[in-house]
């Protein structure tokens, strides 16, 4: 088994240097780590990515030259433990970092690592007292400025206060078999601490999903609370024909199908076959038979898709609402996502062509960026006069609530 800090180093190196996605990289790598070290590895990897700007502020004042990338990464891991992992003694954080430098071929820099970390430890500052929001919350200035412009100072502070730390996990009861209270009872009985939250069950203790009998038996699926509220806002009824145009991994489709009492039909599409299999496998585990999972390109009109009563158009987005789940997203340059609204609009426009007169369509994203949200909906409504806005909703991430999310409910007029 690989040493925890070395495993964290290797993961961080692949994420920061090669652009690997943190959640995918961690899931693959943890199989080489002992059970007792899995938590430490996850905390170090997610924590360093989250707090990179703050860590730069702490480290750089004690460096006279730009260090080699591997040395800087060792310093990140050491400084993160000093400031954000209270249960690890300072001596352990520093000594293991010096050892780590040697283990990754940077033995020449052991004295530098030791000296810098000692200075950081000896000259502690209160991060909560830092006035620079970028340093305090470890978030790029351009992203903060975008949020201030779009959502105001108060909401921006609300967003920033929730982007670091582990997000809550929500179990969505399979209403074909039980409700939230009954699911809570089932989970409590097997030692999983949990509580009711807006029709879902919030998990408050660590648990292994793959060894949970209630999950294996199809009593629930995992879905963020904001996403769950979006799916329920579709108000799909028994016997409806529903289209979930960008469905994988299928959480919204599962919620919709269950609320339709497994009647009618939910067409759950995705561009890639392996992601379609995720939907089909999830539906099978949950005992849902009214979902048809198929490959489809959301950008192209497909004449084989029937007219639908309800459509969920959850488009690819920048992901600025789920930073706490994928912390590297915060470092995206805004220019890298500026073309997304064109794609999002085209998917919405194409999806709307499948809607029956009098039907309902929801446009949604897991981002907090008005160019991808309100502006896309505004353009669609201006260019499609047969659609009206029922309401729209922006969710800000909450410590014990859902992720940042946006959805707009629209209806097509009857001819």
**Derived structural class:** alpha/beta
Helix content: 40-55%
Ends: how far apart? 66 Å
Order of helices and strands: HHHHHHHHHEHEEHEHEHEHEEHEHEE
Task: Compute the number of helices.
Answer: 16
Taking all residues together, what is the mean pLDDT? 94
CA radius of gyration: 23 Å
- Strand coverage percent: 15-25%
Largest sheet: 7 strands, mixed
Q: What is the β-strand count?
A: 11
- What strand line-up does the widest sheet have? 7-6-5-8-9-11-10
Gross morphology is globular
Instruction: Give start-end ranges of low-pLDDT stretches.
Output: none
Structural summary, described in words:
This protein is 44% helix and 16% strand. The chain contains 16 helices and eleven strands. The protein has helices at 4-18, 22-29, 38-50, 52-60, 69-84, 90-103, 110-122, 133-137, 141-160, 180-189, 213-216, 225-233, 251-259, 273-286, 340-352, 374-383, and strands at residues 169-173, 194-197, 200-203, 220-222, 241-244, 265-270, 291-295, 308-314, 355-365, 387-395, 405-412. The chain has a seven-stranded mixed sheet, with helices on both faces. Strands 2-3-1-4 form a four-stranded antiparallel sheet, with helices on both faces. Strand 8, helix 15 and strand 9 (355-365) form a beta-alpha-beta unit. It is globular, with a radius of gyration of 23 Å. The termini are far apart. The model has no long low-confidence stretch (mean pLDDT 94).
